[in-house]
Amino acid sequence: MADHQDELAFTRVNYRLLLIGIGIVMLGYVLMSGGGSGDPNVFEESEIFHPRRVTAAPIVCILGYLFVVYAIMKKPNREPKA
Predict the structure, then answer these.
(1) What is the pLDDT of residues 17-59, one digit of tens each?
(2) Full DSSP string of 44-65
(3) Structural contact between residues 58 and 28, judged by C-beta atoms closer than 8 angstroms
(4) Side-chain half-sphere of 32: how many Cα atoms within 13 Å?
(5) Does residue 78 lie within any of the structural domains?
(6) Residue 4 lies in a domain
(7) How many domains does the chain contain in total?
(8) Domain span at residue 52?
(9) What is the pTM of this model?
């Protein structure tokens, strides 16, 4: 009879998926960054409200967070040992 206390909740697959999800979230934040102006008195509206920052980057971040949740919730395939 196997003792379930010795088994970890996460497997190697869960950790890999988690790292991929964190990478996707980081990519979203990188896409959101930038657009600064060298002169603090000048406001570049076209640069700050670029579709990449306003639309694409938040979608990438949300997809990354959903991927992280999937990585946490994924149950490992546990086959009975003979």
Answers:
(1) 999 999 999 999 999 987 666 777 777 777 778 888 889 999 9
(2) -HHHHT-HIIIIIHHHHHHHHH
(3) yes
(4) 14
(5) no
(6) no
(7) 1
(8) 9-73
(9) 0.77
